[in-house]
Design brief:
heterodimer, A: mainly alpha, Helix Hairpins, 73% helix, B: mainly alpha, 2 domains
């Protein structure tokens, strides 16, 4: 039996949900960034799977979008981790529950 | 496409992802993240996108994971103190997974097998990148430069 597109999409959905779990349920800022990275990787897996199961002899659009998405995710990780370090320097914590200065 | 390889890689990747989401120690979670990205790269290889898989390994395992580890080492006060686990997040994640799986399984047009496709060469990728996608490529270059400068400014010492 050869795998269908649905199996890849379900694997990607499971990965996305795990990333969502990490981003929503942890209190540490680095865990939230790890969750966001996992969700972006799941989206990349979807792009590649749709390209592979799409019509052949077309320009490889899914591969291109996955490449651009990897570059943007790298930029996001760099800026996000720099923000974690800046916040730690100010407040001496990375627990996002304690960063409530803007609460009214 | 090999079904057994797909199942083994998928179970491996999802186990590592669950470990990265739920492990208490931050450093262990970061190392599980590396395993997750190696697994996703293996899935890309299985799908025939070798170039993207290699780029994923280089960028994520080589750069992003090292960046995460450096950040963990630079913020030492909170390591090992992440006790709070919000169960509402788990409920939302399970609900999202259930909804996505239900809609994927109920869409008949997704139950297709892969068509025969000629192998994607790096030459082809480069040609596409330099013709159709040259404008997004320039924008990504600008974005990466801006992110580099922004990250530098964010972590510079503040003068008071």
């Amino acid at each position: 039996m050869t795998p269908t597109l649905q199996i890849f999409l379900i694997v990607s959905a499971a990965l996305f949900s795990t990333g969502l779990l990490a981003a929503l349920s942890r209190r540490h800022a680095i865990f939230i960034l790890i969750g966001i990275e996992m969700m972006l990787a799941a989206a990349n897996l979807n792009f590649i799977a749709f390209w592979r199961f799409g019509p052949p002899h077309q320009p490889p659009t899914g591969v291109m979008i996955a490449l651009f998405s990897i570059a943007i995710a790298a930029a996001e990780a760099a800026v996000g981790l720099a923000m974690v370090i800046a916040v730690y320097r100010h407040y001496h914590t990375t627990n996002v529950d304690q960063l409530d200065q803007l609460r009214g | 496409m090999n079904s057994a390889a797909l199942i083994i890689i998928a179970v491996f990747t999802l186990a590592a992802a669950l470990a990265a989401a739920t492990l208490r120690k931050l450093m262990h979670a970061a190392l599980s993240l590396v395993v997750v990205f190696v697994g996703i790269a293996a899935l890309f290889f299985l799908l025939g996108a070798e170039f993207v898989g290699l780029a994923l390994v280089f960028i994520y395992v080589g750069a992003v994971a090292v960046l995460v580890v450096f950040t963990i080492l630079l913020t030492p006060r909170d390591v090992g103190k992440d006790r709070g686990f919000n169960w509402g997040g788990a409920i939302v994640a399970v609900a999202v997974f259930g909804g996505l799986t239900w809609s994927i399984l109920n869409t008949q047009s997704l139950a297709v097998v892969a068509p025969h496709m000629p192998a994607l060469t790096v030459k082809q990728i480069g040609k596409t990148l330099m013709t159709i996608y040259v404008w997004p490529l320039q924008c990504v270059g600008l974005l990466l430069t801006a992110a580099l400068i922004g990250a530098l400014i964010l972590v510079m010492e503040e003068k008071r």
